[in-house]
Amino acid sequence: MFMQSNSPEDAASVLTPDIEGAAGWRRRRRELALADGATQVARLATASREMRRQILYTIENAGLGHVGGDLSVTDILTTLFEAVLQLDPEQPRWPERDRFILSKGHCAAALYAALSACGFFAPARLRHFAAALSPLNGHPNREKIPGVETNTGPLGHGLPVAVGCATAAQIAGASWRTFVVLGDGELQEGSNWEAAMYAAHRGLHSLTAVVDRNRLQQGASTADTNELEPLADKWRAFGWDALTLDGHDHAALLRAFTAAPTRRPRAVIANTVKGKGISFMENGVEWHHKVPNAAQYEAALKELTP
Predict the structure, then answer these.
(1) Are 277 and 71 in contact (CB under 8 A)?
(2) Whole-model pTM above 0.90?
(3) Which fold has domain 11-303?
C-alpha cells in the first residue's frame, strides 16, 4: 500500500532514479537469464501478478484510470521490462538503450508500474498518479518521466514515432531495438498503416510492433466499431512478418521478443483479455475506464493474492 500524501509540492517533485530498485532489477535480470524455461515463466508470472496489484493500488488511489487495458497489457510489459529490453534506469537517456513506446498511452498506470519496478523512480511515487502538478499524468510525458521515449495519448502516433526511432538506428548502424505496444482499437487510425508501409520499405528489422488484441475499445468491441480481421494478413500485406500468440503466455511472448530478426519488421498480435486477472472485469467493455468501488477493489486484490 502507498503512504498517503496530500502535499502538492510532494506530488510535483522531480522523479529521480531509485538506486536500490535499479540494483534489484539488474539482479532479477541476471538471475532470469541463467534460469531454465520453467523458472523464467514462473518468475515472470509472479512479476505480472505484482504489477497487477500495483496497477489496482494506483488507480484506486487516484480515483481514475483505464484499468481494463492496463490489466490486458501487463504480461506484455512484464516480459519486455523484466527479460528483454536493454535499459539503464540510472541513465534513462543511455544512447545504446532499446527504445520502448507505449502507443496506447491511456494505459499509463501499467507503464508507470513497469518503470518503477525497474528503478526509474521509486514505486512510492505512484501514489501521485494523476494528482495536481504530478509528473505522473494520465498520459506519459517524456519531459517529466524518466524512461518515457515520447508523449502518447492521441492514438495512432506511437507506431510512426517508433518507425522514426528504428530508422535512426538503421542510419546510425546502431544495434539497439525498438518496441512499440499498440491497442487494437487504435489500428483504426490510418497513420499506423502509413508508418507500417514505410517500415517495410526501409526493411526495419530492428522494429517490433506488439498489438494488445483485447478486442474491446471505449464503449464497444473493435468488431462492432470497425472490423480489423484478418489482422495478421493485413500486416503481412504491408510487408511485415506477423505472428499471433496468447498475450498472457510469458514463454510465447519471450520467444517472440527474442527471436532472431529477419529482413522485415515484426508484428506480434497478442490475444489478450481486457481486465485480465480479475474475474468480474474480464471482457467487460465498461472497464475501459471504470474505477472499482471499495468492495470491488478488495475483491480484486483478493483474486490477485497467491
Answers:
(1) yes
(2) yes
(3) Rossmann fold (3.40.50)
Report the mean per-residue pLDDT for the chain: 96
Residues 6 or more apart whose Cβ sits within 8 Å of residue 275: 67, 68, 71, 72, 281, 282, 283, 284, 287
Interval 24-65: pLDDT, tens: 999 999 999 999 999 999 999 999 999 999 999 999 999 999
C-alpha to C-alpha distances, 16 to 4, 92, 93, 98, nearest whole angstrom:
19, 10, 13, 20
Q: Where would I find the H helices in the chain?
A: 8-12, 19-34, 37-62, 67-79, 108-118, 158-172, 190-202, 222-226, 231-237, 250-258, 294-303
> Do 69 and 214 touch, CB atoms closer than 8 A?
yes
* Segments making up each domain of the chain, as ranges: 11-303
Query: Are 222 and 184 contacting, i.e. CB atoms less than 8 angstroms apart?
Result: yes
Do the beta carbons of residue 207 and residue 98 sit within 8 Å? no
Are the CB atoms for 110 and 50 separated by under 8 Å? no
Contacts of 199 (CB under 8 A, 6+ apart): 163, 166, 207, 239, 240, 265
Torsion sign over Cα 208, 177, 276, 29:
positive
